[in-house]
Fold this sequence. Notes:
- The chain has 11 helices and 12 strands.
- By secondary structure, the protein is α/β, with parallel strands linked by helices.
- The protein has 2 domains: 11-112, Udp-n-acetylmuramoylalanyl-d-glutamate--2,6- Diaminopimelate Ligase, Chain: A, domain 1, CATH 3.40.1390; 116-244, Udp-n-acetylmuramoylalanyl-d-glutamate--2,6- Diaminopimelate Ligase, Chain: A, domain 1.
- Strands 2-6-5-4-12 form a 5-stranded mixed beta sheet, with helices on both faces.
- Strand 9 (189-199), helix 7 and strand 10 (214-218) form a beta-alpha-beta unit.
- Helix 2 (57-65) runs parallel beside helix 3.
- The longest helix has 12 residues, at 90-101.
- Residues 1-7 have low confidence and may be disordered.
Amino acid sequence: MNNSAHPTSAATVGDVVALIEQAYPPELAESWDACGLVCGDPADTVRTVRVALDCTDAVADAAIADGADFLLVHHPPLLRRVTGVPVTHPKGRIIHRLIRAGVALYAAHTSADSARPGVNDRLAEILGVTPGAPLTPVPEGVDPLTATGIGRVGELDTPMTLRGFTARVADRLPATEWGVRAAGDPDQMIRRVAVASGSGDSFLGTVLGLDVDCFVTSDLRHHPVDEHLRAGGCAVVDTAHWASEFPWCAQAADLLGADPRLSASVIDLRTDPWTLHHSSTSAGKDRP
């Protein structure tokens, strides 16, 4: 797949890394994050790139089957408590598989969350929200409308009720078993929206002080949302983590595919871990 005799017109792993890091600069990543090249030789040739949100076994298999030389993912596979990658480890198994097949792996996580355009811009746009200022602090002298940072705040293209906006979120994001749920008055009008792709309950305190009608994010928990609402906070829409971030994959593939040396596309696999969902029964609703 990869070879040591590279034609001058061919791109290398190093070239693709440079393209990624120009769009999603590593310095934008959070201090705890692990963005960057996970495996691969910077000198190896790259012609075929695939993009996915997670590097699961199924994604690795799909990349190899597609003849990919490079796999770009959002979530770093070696982020927490990893001291080795033996083939007997679930993560090590994937890394070994990619190395043996000659597939380089790169993770652009919070670097892509903060960049413009990035994960949060794509989430806002797909929901009809103008991607304005980030939720993270903007340095003095920087235009908030162009500042990098996690989250976006902007106007909704068409004011609608929370009920209608929740339906729009469910309709426009990729389908999952988790679905979409909301907290707040279903008939409240939504005009201004904050979004934070992925797990965003750490921003509930931030949006409490903003002039927004709704906050869209993922992985929300009972107590933080309850306390947010009781403190007078805006309505909240909770999506599946995977659904709020997967739309970025097409953006990243288009970016890399703009290089004439590369063929880039998305591995269209749902890596959301949830496989079943049942609504509560009427009997359950009657219980105290």
